[in-house]
Each structure stands twice: as structure tokens, then as C-alpha cells.
Amino acid sequence: MVDTPVVLLHGFYHGAWAWTEVIAELAARGCAAVAVDMAAHGLNAVSPAAAGRRPFDPVLFAAEPSPVAKVGLDAAADLLIAQLKRVGGGKPVSVVAHSMGGAVLSRAAERAPALVAHMVYLAAYMPASDTPCLAYPSLPEGSDNRFMRLLVGDPGSTGALRIDPRSPDPAIRAAIREAFHGDVDEAKAAAATALLSCDAPLAMVVESTVLTEAGWGSLPRTYVVCTEDRTIPAPLQRLFVAQADAAFPANPTGVVELTASHSAFLSVPGRVAEIIAELPPARR
Questions:
Q1: Residues 6+ apart with CB under 8 A from 178
Q2: DSSP 3-state assignment of 262?
């Protein structure tokens, strides 16, 4: 059973709120856990002014430069490292990352491996060394994703991967649900969609992290493959594992397969908590 505090990191557009039910399930299993907000997300999110303008102007919304455009992996890792230090008091903690939170975890773990007892990637980006996340959706393993079609405007101009979670268009809302919340209860999916932010920094997906044996490659890691994921398709998740194991064969990835969509923390929180609670004790 996991014997360290657990830090839960969400992915793009979400916030610490996404882990509410998992935290309750972990508490029921005697596990101490806390969810944190990623840089430019949750309570750190900043929306373009056009998002709140009424009447809403879709052309202006698609073109306005993002206020979080300059937030890259270093800034996100700085925040996560500070959060890990606060939660663990300088001792290592277990970290669970979802979606693009995985890239932030990789950067933070490479820079501060002494703060991390175990890494869990839940349907998360776990990019190979010196490979940006943006390189993956166009690969054969990732090309079936339903995420890229959600983007509004030109990311190169706005500096963000922008979506419109407040859109009244039923087609857009259905597309968001298909990408993120395919197996989530309809009412819960609608509530979660209403909480999504609209901008995720482009910098986070075009930057990369060089992984080393003394850093990220030295840490225990588990990958939870969500087989029904339509944002990071299961073949792409398995590619992450294969690349990591090829690069660090002496430290293979533990793999758990979960029949769930991208947001397993909402659709099967009890099962997610069970996987986390069953992590092996930290290496001393």
C-alpha cells in the first residue's frame, strides 16, 4: 500500500476540482491525498477578455492573444516542485498526473527527483526524452484523437490551445464530451465542462524535457492506460510506455489497463483510487 502522501495533478483545462471524488475514495482507504492546480489552470487560470464579452464575438475570441501564452514547462514545474515540497515537507511524495499534467510531472521529476517517490501517469503524456508533446497527435498511434478538432483559432497566433467550453452549440458540447467525458454520467459531464478553462499554453506542448538515468529515469513509475480514451488514444499511451522502457530498460514501467475514457477520475473514481492505494511502498 502506498505509504507517502499523494499529490494529484490534473491536465489541460481542468483544475484541482477534477480529483474531488478520487480524494474521497482515497480517504476511505486511509490514504492522504491533495490535488493541486497546474500553472495557468484552476485558480491560476486567466481567460482572454473576449471569453467574457457580451454579446459574444467568436471571431474576436478566436484571434485574441492568450494571457497565459508564455507559461511553459519550467514555470509549471517550478509551481509543482513548490507544491511537492509543501505537501511532503521536503520528503518524497507519490505523484499522479493526468493528460498534459504528465509532461509537467516529467519536467519536475527530472529536476527534483528526490521529491518524488513514485510517478503515476493516468492517461497522461509521458513523452520521450527531448520530444515535445505536440509531436505525438499526428503519429499513427495518436491520429485518431478527438481533441485537435476542438481547437479554436490559430495556436501559433494566440499562443494557446483554445477551446470553447461555454459554447451553446450542441455540436461543440457533444464534441467536448466525446473527447474528455465519454463514459461520464451526463449531468456530471455537463458540470465538469462548465468548469473547464478555455486556454492551455502552447509553450507547454512545444517544449521538451531531456530525461536522464539519474533523474526521471531513476524513479518508479506506473502507467494507467485508459482503453476508451479519445483524447490520448490507447495505442499512443502504450507507445509512451514502450519508449520509456526502451530508454531506461533497467527501470521498466508498471502498467495497469483500465476500461475508461479520458476522465477516469470522474467515471471510475473508486477504481482510480484503488490503483493509487495499491502502489508499492516507497523505496528507502
A1: 146, 230
A2: coil
Which residues, in sequence order, are CB contacts of 212 under 8 Å at separation 6+?
Answer: 110
Confirm whether 283 is domain-assigned: no
- 209 domain residue, yes or no: yes
* CATH assignment of the domain containing 94: 3.40.50.1820
pLDDT single digits (tens) 88-131: 999 999 999 999 999 999 999 999 999 999 999 999 999 999 99
> For the whole prediction, is pTM greater than 0.90?
yes
Instruction: For residue range 232-245, list pLDDT tens digits in order.
Output: 999 999 999 999 99
Q: Could you report how far apart the first and last alpha carbons of the chain are, in Å?
A: 15
Pairing of strands 93-99, 33-36: unpaired
Number of domains in the chain: 1
What residues make up the domain containing 99?
6-277
Residue-wise pLDDT for 147-185, tens only, equals 999 999 999 999 999 999 999 999 999 999 999 999 999
